[in-house]
Amino acid sequence: MRKFDLEHVYESQQFDSELLDIIFNVADEMKKDLAAEQRRYSQVLNDKIMASLFYEPSTRTRFSFESAMARLGGSILTTENAKEFSSASKGETLYDSTKVMCGYADLIVMRHNEPGSAKMAAEASSVPVINAGDGSGQHPTQALLDLYTIRDCFPAVDNLSIAMVGDLKYGRTVRSLSYLLTKYDNITIYFVSPSVCKMDDDIKDYLTVNNVEWKDESSLEKVLPLVDCVYMTRIQRERFHDPEDYEQAAGKYIIDVEQAGLMKKESIIMHPLPRVDEISQKVDNDPRAQYFQQARNGLFIRMALLLLLLGNDIDD
Ligand code: CP
């Protein structure tokens, strides 16, 4: 049987269908273990140390990785805002910081503002590096938890129509998820975005080559009745170079109770979070709203990745 054979996780193109199945099976096992009275995996990483180096803010990714490591019995080295409180503020390069940190930790989880930074760090590191978001590049562990959530609701994943809505230019989660969706059959993606933040051609070309149908759309109302999943995203003010572009894009696409009423009964609403105004709080009690469960699923996926990357396969 195929073994998990990745040394690092820096982009979604690293995963094939078999690796996805391995990760999802271990994540299912972690979910079961956390609910069990007698836990089997609570100390399995008790001799391991994870460094969490976040040069950009995070709630879900950082805390779910730290929670995942703690729930497996491991230890954590961390700093508030690595940009300010690590020696990056004195001019140390990411290359040097990585070379040093891999002497202290068994695995590094890193969020950085530069696309490609995680891959560069992985090349410099003697221990596994996990990309927790590299600027507007990728967020592969988010894509894994997104797909895990989709799979919970639609086990085959094949034949789904998905609307990706909002900031598709700077949004790394939609980029990473697009790559993973190519592993399934008969997928259609609608890209619904303001004209100033459309999905880039590299992703569209990749989808075309890999037989995923995609369409650009500007009307959310038109797309909502057609899709099985609507994946909302925040307009990322911090990544816009021109404040006028941001103003043009902000607040354009919102799911409120009325908009949710246009969606199919069996469809789902997702969001990587944080949200600003993209989904009204009134939608939270709609059974189709999956975004808080989605965030919770991040814990199971990240426990699975820590186990697999640190060489601990689960018992049969
Ligand atoms: N979804 C996500 O990456 O959230 P954080 O920025 O809070 O980690």
Note down, in words, how this protein is organized.
This protein has twelve helices and nine strands. The chain is an alpha/beta fold. It folds into two domains: 141 residues, Rossmann fold, CATH 3.40.50; 155 residues, Aspartate/ornithine carbamoyltransferase (Rossmann fold). The strands form two sheets. A five-stranded parallel β-sheet has the order 7-6-5-8-9. Helix 1 packs across helix 12 and helix 4 crosses helix 5. The two termini are 13 Å apart. The mean pLDDT is 96. Phosphoric acid mono(formamide)ester (CP) binds next to helix 2. Phosphoric acid mono(formamide)ester binds next to helix 2.
Helix and strand topology:
Layout: H1 17-35, E1 49-54, H2 60-71, E2 75-78, H3 82-85, H4 94-101, E3 107-112, H5 117-124, E4 129-134, H6 140-153, E5 161-165, H7 172-181, E6 188-192, H8 201-209, E7 213-217, H9 220-223, E8 229-232, H10 243-249, H11 257-260, E9 268-270, H12 291-309
Parallel strand pairs: 1-2, 1-3, 3-4, 5-6, 5-8, 6-7, 8-9
Helix pairs in contact: 1-12, 2-12, 4-5, 6-7, 6-12
The chain binds phosphoric acid mono(formamide)ester.
